Amino acid sequence: MISNLVKENIKSLIPYEVKECETVAKLDANENNNVDYLLNQKIAKALMELKVNQYPDTDCCELRRILGKQLRLSPQQLLIGCGSDQIILMILQAFIGAGDKILIHTPTFGMYKISTQIVGGSTIEVPLGEDFTFDYYNFVKVMKKEAPKVVFLTNPNNPTGGVIPREQIIRIIEHANGIVVIDEAYVEFYGETVLDLVNYYPNLIVLRTLSKGYGLAGARVGYGVASKELMGILYKVKPPYNIGSLSQVAAKVCLENKEMLDRVIKEIIIERDKMADVLSDIPDIKVYKSHGNFLLCKVGKAKEVYQHLADHKVLVRYFGEEGPLKGCIRITIGTKEENQLVVKLLMEALGVTKEIAV
Ligand SMILES: Cc1ncc(COP(=O)(O)O)c(C=O)c1O
């Protein structure tokens, strides 16, 4: 009986899947396993001052003030979300309804499509080109034909790690008839941003998160940056008190200790490139160039390899044996020890015996 009441678009929805299991190395969600323990102590100290009996600052004014100063933007151009996931949903709630279309490249982060289905819209997908490079000409062709209300570009892309050149992003923003969202969840591991363009293009939204480089996935804090006009619209759909006061405190501590995190991020980038070289030397593994904190690898016997890792409580992301990511696993760059463990287990699973130094 209840199933008859469910909206048609929700009936067919395949929800986002999260694997919960005991691990010795959790390398499946692009978290930052290298964050300094000192940061926890600082967060704990700051939490002692908190009045948890009161509702949080609904618009995260203090957090936006700090971010605005760091990014040289007006706090009015900033919106904080319960993860950037919530901002994706807010964008769709504000602009997409039944009959409306969004445009994405595939493969990419799954939540654009899921959230679009939740709000009743549909998703047009443009495949990435050879070796998962961005197919600019085809993307623009489809964009002109379909006239989507919202376009999502993920830069660097998850799960491929590839990037889109700035000039191509600019041309897409200029050719688009609707909103263009540039998701920069992994920007800290890439270094190039289009944040400066929000002052020139009123249809542009840049998304960021503290879940990746900043090592704060547990607090669920992301932010969006856009023109004041666009922000005014997004604030209409923002739920009140959407960021808990504990998370606001954690985010503030994180931003105030940026140098500490910048150091960790540099180390992860070095470790990523080293891992890419090491894995490329293993027969049966193809590593795609990554600008994120993860590596996408096409692996022979991917299912068995994934299972071998899982049997040793090392969790990576496996994409199954169908679609463009068939036979691929995505490995988050972890601590040095975790990375060494992954390499050892991969070699074991693939029956490689030669010495490889990580
Ligand atoms: C490209 C991209 N965007 C957004 C997110 C969501 O991040 P969060 O909701 O933790 O801010 C992720 C998480 O994996 C991602 O890969």
TrEMBL record:
<feature type="domain" description="Aminotransferase class I/classII large">
    <location>
        <begin position="29"/>
        <end position="343"/>
    </location>
</feature>
<keyword id="KW-0028">Amino-acid biosynthesis</keyword>
<dbReference type="InterPro" id="IPR005861">
    <property type="entry name" value="HisP_aminotrans"/>
</dbReference>
<keyword id="KW-0663">Pyridoxal phosphate</keyword>
<dbReference type="Pfam" id="PF00155">
    <property type="entry name" value="Aminotran_1_2"/>
</dbReference>
<dbReference type="GO" id="GO:0004400">
    <property type="term" value="F:histidinol-phosphate transaminase activity"/>
</dbReference>
<comment type="pathway">
    <text>Amino-acid biosynthesis; L-histidine biosynthesis; L-histidine from 5-phospho-alpha-D-ribose 1-diphosphate: step 7/9.</text>
</comment>
<dbReference type="InterPro" id="IPR015422">
    <property type="entry name" value="PyrdxlP-dep_Trfase_small"/>
</dbReference>
<dbReference type="InterPro" id="IPR015421">
    <property type="entry name" value="PyrdxlP-dep_Trfase_major"/>
</dbReference>
<comment type="subunit">
    <text>Homodimer.</text>
</comment>
<keyword id="KW-0808">Transferase</keyword>
<keyword id="KW-0368">Histidine biosynthesis</keyword>
<dbReference type="InterPro" id="IPR001917">
    <property type="entry name" value="Aminotrans_II_pyridoxalP_BS"/>
</dbReference>
<feature type="modified residue" description="N6-(pyridoxal phosphate)lysine">
    <location>
        <position position="212"/>
    </location>
</feature>
<dbReference type="GO" id="GO:0030170">
    <property type="term" value="F:pyridoxal phosphate binding"/>
</dbReference>
<dbReference type="InterPro" id="IPR015424">
    <property type="entry name" value="PyrdxlP-dep_Trfase"/>
</dbReference>
<keyword id="KW-0032">Aminotransferase</keyword>
<dbReference type="InterPro" id="IPR004839">
    <property type="entry name" value="Aminotransferase_I/II_large"/>
</dbReference>
<protein>
    <recommendedName>
        <fullName>Histidinol-phosphate aminotransferase</fullName>
        <ecNumber>2.6.1.9</ecNumber>
    </recommendedName>
</protein>
<comment type="similarity">
    <text>Belongs to the class-II pyridoxal-phosphate-dependent aminotransferase family. Histidinol-phosphate aminotransferase subfamily.</text>
</comment>
<dbReference type="GO" id="GO:0000105">
    <property type="term" value="P:L-histidine biosynthetic process"/>
</dbReference>
